[in-house]
Write a structure and sequence with these properties.
The protein has about 280 residues and is an alpha/beta fold. It contains 13 helices and 5 strands. Strands 2-1-3-4-5 form a 5-stranded parallel sheet, sandwiched between helices. Helix 2 packs across helix 5, helix 8 crosses helix 13 and helix 10 crosses helix 13. The longest helix is centred in the C-terminal third of the chain and has 36 residues. The N and C termini lie far apart (about 55 Å). The relative contact order is 0.11.
């Protein structure tokens, strides 16, 4: 396996002492917002740093790039991967009201585009599989676990055997070893996925555990292991990815499972509410 290319900020720190004063000025501009590299031409970038285009050209060659365009391609790849550092393009002159409106429109578009892409037959099949599964395990790492936790909190009300993984202090093998065809795994994999997700899904596939994969629009390699894949639009208007469509799909999915569970789901909800009152757990 070839080594991953060193990103811009890593190269700058590696060669900092060898840069001229003018090159260091350009480096400081890029370290503050590397995303500018993906958006601007070499001339625009040089002007923003107050240096010449020739200085900018020497700067990127000094860092080991074949050309400015090679560095720019790498920055765009980092943006596409979802790196917040590269999605940040510096201070914006847009007024706050304008930014808020753009953000709202983007969130609405993510919701609309995601729900339009959902296929009723696929969704129904997922709902039936979750409701009928002996055990449901929900897996997610980093920010994907936040979405996994949303699913867990809702499904726990209507399904008697739900687990959120990975759990602190346990190995994953200890939690997966007894799973089989009667169970179901819901795997959440948003961009900037950890390799652990693909490894876990490969292990689940070997155990013949049916899998529902909830992902961003690109889905990535883990999708090949899943029986069902639900893709959500996550592009943000600012620095961070949007999760509004993900939350909406999770709400819909769990609500449909509750409806499908019928009396068994209602009985479990009723029993939980009685215990809430006895334990004085909620206001």
């Amino acid at each position: 396996m070839s080594a991953r290319p060193v990103p811009l900020e890593g190269r700058i720190r590696q060669y900092w002492d060898e840069l001229s004063l003018h090159e260091q000025r350009l480096a400081e501009v890029l370290l503050a917002a590397p995303g500018q590299l993906a958006m601007n031409t070499a001339t625009e970038l040089a002007q923003s740093a107050g240096v010449s285009k020739a200085t900018a050209t020497r700067f990127f060659r000094h860092l080991g790039y074949e050309s400015y365009e090679a560095a720019r391609r790498q920055a765009r790849e980092m943006q596409n991967s979802g790196s917040p550092l590269y999605l940040h393009t510096g201070s914006s002159a847009s007024p706050l009201d304008s930014l808020m409106q753009q953000h709202l429109e983007k969130e609405i578009a993510n919701l609309v585009n995601t729900f339009r892409s959902l296929e009723g037959d696929t969704l129904q099949s997922c709902v039936e599989a979750i409701a009928q599964a002996r055990r449901v395990v929900i897996l997610g790492w980093r920010h994907s676990q936040t979405i996994a936790a949303l699913i867990y909190r809702d499904l726990l009300h209507v399904h008697p055997h739900v687990s959120l993984l990975p759990r602190a202090g346990d190995s994953l093998a200890e939690q997966l070893a007894d799973l089989g065809q009667q169970d179901l795994a819901i795997c959440v994999g948003l961009r900037r996925r950890m390799p652990a997700l693909d490894s876990a899904m490969a292990a689940l596939e070997m155990l013949e555990v049916p899998m529902l994969y909830l992902s961003d629009a690109l889905a990535g390699k883990p999708a090949r292991h899943a029986r069902w894949t639900l893709r959500c639009h996550t592009d943000g208007s600012l620095i961070f990815d949007s999760t509004v469509a993900l939350s909406g799909v999770c709400n819909l999915l769990c609500s449909l499972v509750a409806r499908h569970s019928g009396k068994a789901g209602s009985d479990r909800l009723a029993a939980i509410e009685v215990l809430h009152q006895q334990l004085d757990e909620l206001e």
